[in-house]
Structure formats: structure tokens, C-alpha cells
Amino acid sequence: MQVFLSDTSLLIVQCFAAFSISAAIVASIHVILRRGDNRSAIGWIGLFWLGYPLIGSLIYLMVGVNLIRRDKKAIGAAILSKTKRRRPHAPRTGTEPLRSLDLAPHMHTLKKMGDRILGNKLHSGNLIEPLIGGSQAYPAMIAAINSAQRSIALASYVFKDDFAGNQFADALQNAQNRGVQVRVLIDAMGSTHGGRSIYRNLKNRGLPVYRFIPTLGLPFFRFINLRNHRKILVVDGHTAFTGGTNIDVAFWTEHCPPDVETKFDFHFRVQGPVISDLMAAFEQDWRFTTGEALDGDTWKVALIQQGPMFARGIPDGPDSDTRLTHSFILAALATAKHNIRIVTPYFLPPSDIISAIGVAILRGVKIEILVPDPTNNLLVQWASSDYLKKIDELGGIVWADKGHFSHTKLMVVDGCWSMIGSANWDPRSLRLNFEFNLDCHSEELASKINHYWDERIKSTQIWHHPTIGERPRWMEIRDGLARLCTPLL
Questions:
Q1: In which band, very low, low, confident or very high, does the pLDDT at 402 lie, cut at 50, 70 and 90?
Q2: Which tens digit of pLDDT belongs to each residue from 246-266?
Q3: Of the candidates 409, 260, 247, which has an alpha carbon nearest to the alpha carbon of residue 328?
Q4: Domains of the chain: which residue ranges?
Q5: Is the dihedral of CA 75, 80, 83, 84 positive or negative?
Q6: Helices 351-362 and 324-335: crossing angle, nearest 10°?
Q7: Helix (H/G/I), strand (E/B), else coil: 458
Q8: What is the CATH number of domain 123-311?
Q9: Under CATH, which number does the domain 324-488 receive?
Q10: Given phi > 0 = left and psi -120 to 50 = alpha, else beta, which region is 445?
């Protein structure tokens, strides 16, 4: 049976086809210019031309484009851009020359690599204290808010409207009532994870709260991947907190309801000149979201020496042409001499990091990785099995943490250098999210983290990957299909 189209219908079909082909051409050009990974580029171009051009182009726009402009200050002004990341302008005070650092020779190499990756110097005179779990972190954070006299800057990926969230909300409202300037930034997508967001609650209290890149509505739908995963609290410019802990009652063991799965994470109280890096990262995100510049004495950071530690911030994000956290991981793997300990809830690293781990092991470096088993995401659980198997085959040690789900992100090298913060070892953190980590040269801090490791490892066991034949074939196929989704996990 023949189907005849009217001239008008035929014209519509032709226009639609022309638009689809044009979209595929534009998307292909963008891939060629922006995708450094040939395999990724070939995959995207294949999707455009072997699949349906318009649908492929729309998928690329939603999940494949990672660059946004950070120099537009109005809400929702995030657009595709060639503009490089505008680095936060943190004060250079509080730094000391290389000769004052009491480091092992190879750690000088890591410090020099860090200088070149970030383009700034380490801050001296810092005190960084680990806070284990929400039971230590939340009371310390709320106490700092209650003591605030002039300013509070708070950013969180998840900020739930539960017992923990309301404790923070009450403290923030009381601070504002005392005349303290309060600013709260919540990620628009992260705030919807596993429960009701505190956003409306804070709005109703009259607190200045904004969502980072709203995802509802067509203009913002393409930024579903570009999330603010940072966790930053700066109080009066002299006390700060950062790490991996969201504001969620699941992390507060004593108050976690029986029907909520308990989670565990590390957070850190920070004092000293490095707070300027935390405040600069928050100010950049706040100014981008609201257009308000946090200038003046109210938001001034106290550059006072507080301790013996050297540290600097690593403010990473998809608006940077250089993957800063990724580069630091490679630098640490390249310079380690004795041992590396890694804690992450999601282990889906890119191939160059896997290769660097293999080379480090060949040099005699002992590499241990602690992952939760099971993790809280089935797709990640399935996809990560091959990555962990590869580490095992290379000669690394993988520990399976069977306790409460650990959301912790830590890396310690040779007992004298640590990277702490919000980034996981997965494509979302290393390529798609805005993250904040700290580069810390301190044997004292590394020793405290290693002590946690030694205690935690007592209740874990060596991770075991089933060999072929130990489980049904469909499970192998399932894990392989999940691994294909790794770039989006």
C-alpha cells in the first residue's frame, strides 16, 4: 500500500530531516573540537549518524556536554562556552617558600607538581581535624553556626528536611535573627536525593537560599550532569568545614530512624589561611548562581596561623579544561614510594588511572582500596566489579567494607600526604561535577586517617571477585552492560 504525502506534509518532513542532519553536524563538530578521547568521540559520532541524528544530538546536549560559563552572574545563565574556568582569587598570604617544608624528597616532587596543576602555593599554618561521622561533624558544625557573629556561608549537595536538616535550619535562622549574614546554596538535583529537600523550609524561614542550576524546564535540562557536589561551611572567616558528609539524618547514628539506612562519612574542621580557598570556591558558586558578590569585611577571611599543616584547595569542575582532581590523583600515584590507601564509595576510575595504579604497583608501592560492599547503587555495584578485579589482578589489595554504607572519600600516600574532600573515584566526580578537595602535606593528619583505616579494616575482609563459572552467565552479561554505562554513573 502506497502512502502519499501532501506537499505541505512532505515539506514538513524535509524540514525536520534537514534540522536533524544540521543538529548532527553541529554536534559532530563540537565533539571533534572538544572530545580529547578518541574512543569517546567515535562513540558519540556513531550515535549521531548510525542512530537517529536528532535524538543522538539531544542526548549529547543533555549528558555529553560538560562546559558551562561561570562568568554569567544571573540565575540560570549557564550556557555552552569556550570560556575557561575563572579561578577563585584567593589571597597568596599565608604561604611559605619550599625550604620551610619538612618533607621527604619525593614529597617535594608532589608539591611541585601540585604547584603546576593549580598555579598557586600551599598555605602554611593550618589546623585540619578529622570528624568521624555525623555524630562528630554535625554538633561541631551547628556549634560553629551558633557562635557566628558576622557571616555564614554553607553549601551542600544534599540538605534534607529531616531531623538533621532542621537542626541546621534552626541554627541558621537563629544566627540571622542575631544579625549574622547567612548564605545557603543547595544543589538542585542533589537536594532531591532520597527525601524531601530543606529548600522550601529555609525559604519559608526567610533565609537567603538558592538552588545551584535548577534542572526543571527545558533551558536547564541539559545540565542534569553538571552538579555542585561540594560540601563547604565557612563561619566568620576563621572556622570552616569540608569533606564528604551531606546534611542527612542517615549520617547521624543516634538520631537515624529505624527505617532509614545508616551511612558513614568523614568530615573535617579547618582553621587557618587555607580557609580563603574554601571561601573563594563558595563565593564563585554563589556569585554565579545569584549575581551577588560577597565582598567587604563581613566576608573577610582571617589569615591567622592556627597550626603546623600545609594545605590548599582543589576547586574542580566541568568548566575547567584541566581535570584538577584527576591530575592530583595521577601525580600522587606517580610519586608514591611505599604505600597508598584509598577509600571511596564508588570505584569507576578512567583507564589512565588504572594504568598508573599498575605502574605504581610494579615500582613496589603497596596499594590498598577500601570500598563498601555492597554499595548503595546497584548499577555502580555491577559496573565496578571489573575495575576492582583489575586492581586485584595488578597486585593491589581490595578490602570489602561490610559495615554501615561508607560514603567516605580519602587518599593517603606514604603516611605524609592526604587528599580529602568531596570527590569520588568515578566519572561523575572526576569529570562532571563541581568538587572541592584539599591537598594536605601533614604527617599528623595522615597518621589520624591511617589510624581510622587500621580500625576500620578490622571489620572488613578481602574483596573476592567470582571467577568464570562461579556464578550464572547472565550476571556476567549484566555487569558488562552496567560497565558500558560507566561514563554516566
A1: confident
A2: 999 999 999 999 888 899 999
A3: 409
A4: 18-64, 123-311, 324-488
A5: positive
A6: 10
A7: coil
A8: 3.30.870.10
A9: 3.30.870.10
A10: alpha
